[in-house]
Write a structure and sequence with these properties.
Blueprint lengths: L19 E4 L18 H5 L8 E5 L2 E4 L13 E5 L5 E4 L8 E3 L2 E3 L11 E3 L2 E3 L14 E2 L5 H4 L3 E3 L16 E6 L2 E11 L4 E4 L11
Parallel strand pairs: 1-2, 2-4, 3-5
Antiparallel strand pairs: 6-7, 8-9, 10-11, 11-14, 12-13, 13-14
C-alpha cells in the first residue's frame, strides 16, 4: 500500500532558509525558486530534487491552474505547502483562457485543443452559458419506438423544425438538456439529421422508470 501523506495549506510568516522554495503566479519555471526568482507552478516546485531535510514550498497569493493531478509519495513526507500569509493562494483545476479579442460586441478566444468548455468564470464570477431558447423549453417531437428505452434510455430523439440547426458552429460542443422525471440529463450532440429532424447524442438518458 502506498504511503499516505496529508498536505496542509496554512497561512504563516515567511522564514526564509535554504529549505524554502517560492512559487508565485507571476513567477517563471525557468527561475531558481528563490524568493527573488520564484517558480510559477507548483508542479515545478515539486520536481526540485531534495534531501531528507524538511522542505517548505511557499505559495504567494493568486490562482494556480493545475492541469494534472499533483503526485506526492513517501519521498514528500517532510514537505509542507504553505501560504505565505499575504493573501490567499487558490489551486484551480480550470484553464486560464488568454488572448481575448473583441469582434463587434462579442469577445472571442481560442481554447486549447482537447478542451471541452462547460462553464466559464470571469473575475471569479461564473457566467451563464448561452441557451436556446432564451426562455422556456422545446418539446420532444418523437422518440425511437424500436429502441430498448427501459434498459438503455434515449440515445436519439426527434425535434421540431427550427429547434436544432445542423449548421450551428462547433455542433459537437453543444449539449442538449433533457428533462425527465426527477432527473436532468446533459447530452452532447453527436450528429444531426436535418432532413429527418433527428438528433443523436454521444450518450443516453437514464432508462426506465425515468425514460421520456
Amino acid at each position: 500500500m502506498g504511503a499516505v501523506m496529508l498536505l496542509t495549506l496554512i497561512a504563516a510568516s515567511i522564514a526564509g532558509s535554504a529549505s524554502d522554495i517560492f512559487v508565485a503566479p507571476n513567477g517563471s519555471d525557468q527561475g531558481n525558486g528563490s524568493k527573488a526568482a520564484p517558480f510559477r507552478t507548483l508542479e515545478r516546485a515539486l520536481a526540485v530534487p531534495r534531501s531528507e531535510k524538511p522542505l517548505t514550498i511557499w505559495l504567494r497569493a493568486g490562482e494556480y491552474f493545475v492541469r494534472k493531478p499533483l503526485h506526492v509519495a513517501s519521498a514528500d513526507s517532510n514537505l509542507s505547502i504553505v501560504a505565505d500569509g499575504k493573501g490567499l493562494p487558490v489551486l484551480s483545476g480550470g484553464i486560464l483562457i488568454e488572448g481575448w479579442k473583441k469582434q463587434g460586441a462579442v469577445w472571442t478566444a481560442t481554447v486549447p485543443d482537447g478542451v471541452n468548455v462547460n462553464q466559464v468564470f470571469v473575475n471569479g464570477v461564473r457566467y451563464r452559458r448561452p441557451r436556446f431558447p432564451e426562455s422556456g423549453y422545446f418539446n420532444v417531437r418523437e422518440i425511437d419506438a424500436s429502441a430498448d428505452r427501459a434498459k438503455n434510455g434515449e440515445k436519439s430523439i426527434g425535434f421540431r423544425a427550427g429547434d436544432i440547426d445542423a449548421s450551428w458552429h462547433d455542433l459537437n460542443a453543444i449539449e442538449v438538456l433533457v428533462f425527465q422525471n426527477w432527473t436532468i440529463t446533459r447530452l452532447p450532440i453527436a450528429k444531426v439529421d436535418a432532413a429527418k429532424n433527428w438528433v443523436e447524442f454521444t450518450g443516453a438518458t437514464i432508462g426506465a422508470p425515468w425514460a421520456l
